[in-house]
Amino acid sequence: MTGSELHEALTLPSTLSTVEIVEAKATEYAQKAGFDEDTASQISMVSREAAVNAVLHGNKKAPDKSVRATFSLSPEKLTIQVADEGEGFDPTSVPDPLSPEGLLRPSGRGIFLMRAIMDEVHFRQLSPGAEITLVKHRNRD
Amino acid sequence: MSMNVKLRHVGGVTVLDLSGRITLGEGSIGLRDAIRDALAAGSKKILLNVADVNYIDSAGLGELVGAYTSVKNAGGDLKLMNLSKKVKDLLVITKLLTIFDVKENETDAIAAFA
Fold it and tell me: What is the count of residue pairs from A and B with beta carbons less than 8 Å apart?
């Protein structure tokens, strides 16, 4: 672990290429943070989920709306934020994917996976839009 | 960045060897098409070999669930085999391991269809 801090902010279009960019950048930061391969892969996957939500559900692929992704690495934690310019998002509106009827639903696992894999997940309403913050502490798996 | 599907038949079972990524877009559509084609060809016993699947996202998990439902609705049986630790962890977290019939290897899986 180094004492240095890294920070990067990207403004990206509302296209699926953004999903790939966020995933690749999250992988890069997770590796820089020193997480093992499985954990880095999981962090990259849930960052991808956040980007998918922003592009598809938030901005609905609107060409005049952007996705802002920030990646911050401190000695204590990796923080990834993804914000869209859509109509906002209520995380409580997503049905429980572990319920008997939820298990066979083909969608609705993205937020659940973020919460299961990251140490902290925060949602913030913007005007307009929504922001997801994903945090993974470096001193534990 | 996408998924490849190879189809073979072993003892009356249709084996789909999946490799690559099952993710939103091409990867998940590829699986959907492969299942649809197998069912259309009359296959009722379908085995997904995910040994070479190195990445699944929630859309990919959704496609696995969709595959399971499609095969069940057609009166068939779908099993998974050769799960990597990464894929198995995801199925454990999402409790999908309680739905899928998962086998360690092809011999066990083929025998379990009998």
Answer: 56
> Which structure tokens are listed for B3?
């998924």
Cα B110 from chain centre: 14
What is the count of structural domains for chain B? 1
- Note which residues in 71-90 of chain B have CB less than 8 A from chain A: 85-86, 89-90
Helix (H, G, I), strand (E, B) or coil at B6: strand
pLDDT tens-digit series, residues B46-97? 999 999 999 999 999 999 999 999 999 999 999 999 999 999 999 999 999 9
* Interacting residues of B34 by C-beta distance below 8 A, sequence separation 6+: B5, B7, B16
CATH for A6-137 is 3.30.565.10
- Helices in chain B by DSSP H: which ranges? 26-40, 58-73, 85-93, 106-112
- What is the block-wise mean pLDDT of chain A (141 residues), using blocks of 10 residues? 77 96 97 95 96 96 98 97 94 89 91 97 95 91 48
The enclosing domain of B35 has a CATH number of: 3.30.750.24
* Domain of residue B47, residue span: 3-106
CB contact under 8 A, B69 and A104: yes
Contact residues for B56 (Cβ-Cβ < 8 A; gap 6+): A45, B21, B22, B23, B64, B87, B90
In a domain, B111, yes or no: no
Tell me if B114 is assigned to some domain.
Answer: no
Do the Cβ atoms of B93 and A97 come within 8 Å?
no
Q: Is residue B24 part of a domain?
A: yes
Q: Model-level pTM? A: 0.91
Q: Which of B54, B58, B61, B70 is best to mutate for the A interface (most A CBs within 10 A)?
A: B58
The answer to whether residue B51 is domain-embedded is: yes
